[in-house]
Amino acid sequence: MSQWHTATVGARAPAADGLTDLVLDLRGTALVGTHAHPGQYVRLRLPGQEPGMFAIASPPAPQGTHWEFLLKHDGALPSALLRLPVGTPVEVSRPEGPGFPMDKARGHDLLLFASGSGISAIRPVIASLHQERRAYGRVTLYFGARTPSSFAYARELERWQADDVRVVRTVSQPGVSGWEGLTGYVQAHLGEESLENAVAFVCGQAEMVQDVMAELRQRGVPQSAVFLNY
């Protein structure tokens, strides 16, 4: 059973097509500083709604008083959360799941895979590794979205690229957008580089996760070097 704490809506802003960034204010709750590992998630609950699980999209901080979430515009709970005025109470559980093991990636090349709103669990990984970038080898983010306008954190992607994280974006449904970048699914764009020293963190829909894991296996990355956040 989850133990519930009452946070409040601190801010809300568009993140991409079909995605909104929601910030919860934890001040005055026992949740402050409880987010320990990138990739952890919490349960959110509103009166009359079933709880839902959401990855914390902001990095762990010892005295962190605000958590960010990337909400997809579908489902009863996300839709209700997106309509709440600033200051509205939201019930929140303590962080759950092991998150991504940053210590296992130290000294290795790091492959990050995310699709759609799955980038919310990978974003704090990138923030954490930037605190000691030299502890890791090459870092590559493979980020897939349905359309060119549905990549969350677009400005941050540019900053990550400038800060020595290779960003590979691919679109599964480019339509008539004029998109000239990569198309298809993330696992199709691993390239030919050696993955001998690689560790992988993966977050996305179940089918994407399975496909990525199968491709990594085929490329010689052992299952023991591939991590999910749950």
From TrEMBL:
GO terms for biological process: pyrimidine nucleotide biosynthetic process. It comes from the Bacteria. InterPro entries: Cyt_c3_hydrogenase_gsu, FAD-bd_FR_type, Flavoprot_Pyr_Nucl_cyt_Rdtase, FNR_nucleotide-bd, OxRdtase_FAD/NAD-bd, Riboflavin_synthase-like_b-brl. GO terms for molecular function: 2 iron, 2 sulfur cluster binding; flavin adenine dinucleotide binding; oxidoreductase activity. It holds the Pfam family NAD_binding_1. Residues 2-102 form the FAD-binding FR-type domain. Coiled coil: none annotated. This is NAD-binding oxidoreductase. It comes from Corallococcus terminator.
